[in-house]
Amino acid sequence: MARFILKKLFNLIPILIGTSFITFLLIHLVPGDPAEAYLRLSQIPPTDEAIEHTQKELGLNKPLYIQYFSWLQGALQLDFGDSFTTGEPAKEAFYYLWPTLQLTLSALLLTLLISIPIGIFSAVYKNSFIDQLSRLLAYVGASMPSFWLGFLLLYFFSYKLGLFPSGSRGTISHLVLPSITLCLVYTFTFTRLLRSGILEFMHEPFVMYARSRGLKERVVIGKHVLKNASQPFITAFSMSIGHMLAGTVIVETVFSWPGMGRYFVTAILNRDYPVIQLCVLLMTLIFIIINLIVDIIYAYLDPRIRLKGDQFK
Predict the structure, then answer these.
(1) Domain ABC transmembrane type-1 spans what residues (predicted)?
(2) Interior CA angle at 114 toward 140 and 247, to 5°?
(3) What are the tens digits of pLDDT across the range 260-272?
(4) In this structure, what DSSP letter does residue 160 have?
(5) Global pTM value
């Protein structure tokens, strides 16, 4: 298992470098001059002389490969440059990271707490009322945009009923509506996926053998069926984490949540290259770490994966 984890960690290095390089190229291909945006935000007329002076001050007059390697050299020393907009270190993005992670983790936890019990119940009691209802909600959740769902929740539970705050960040009550908005799109889709996986293994020979040994049904489902049926569920769940991180941009805007999503969008609009580069790098690192955790879970569920990883030298 140790070699398996080391191999995954070793693969982080080229992925992060490749992501940073592609991001660097893409943000320089976007129309617009960050020097001009900087001058407009500073309420300075963007004359040709002022733009040229600002480009020189920000280091934008150098060739792209020099700019990239200069940034990479600083990044290896945890110096990600200064924001073009505020002049503060780009590491200020770390301040906005925790609110986004808090929102994403709460949505993920809520997704698991809802989808797993309902998925198991829908499979065990196939074609029951709960099964039919979860199928209907899966269609509704998959087709409803998250921003529209957020506005509906705000209207009914905040403005009409006054049960939850309408926005910002503070107590746990501020977290309820954004978390529901972010998770509900995925919850019932995962419910149907888990249900299908359980039904697929319900009549496998090893399950029939477990029943013939006199094991209780909950033991058969929990220890034998669920362990094998959960792998597609885990795959879809891990892939959805990246979508949830991206989806926080919309949810944070609707609920005025002070997270990295809004900070990242503002940086894009202002052509703030150092902040954009750092935000993408952080999101990539989080996504890779989560996938590493999922791979470790896979190796636990399926020893063949672990044995293959142990061949790494």
Answers:
(1) 97-294
(2) 60
(3) 887 888 888 888 8
(4) I
(5) 0.74
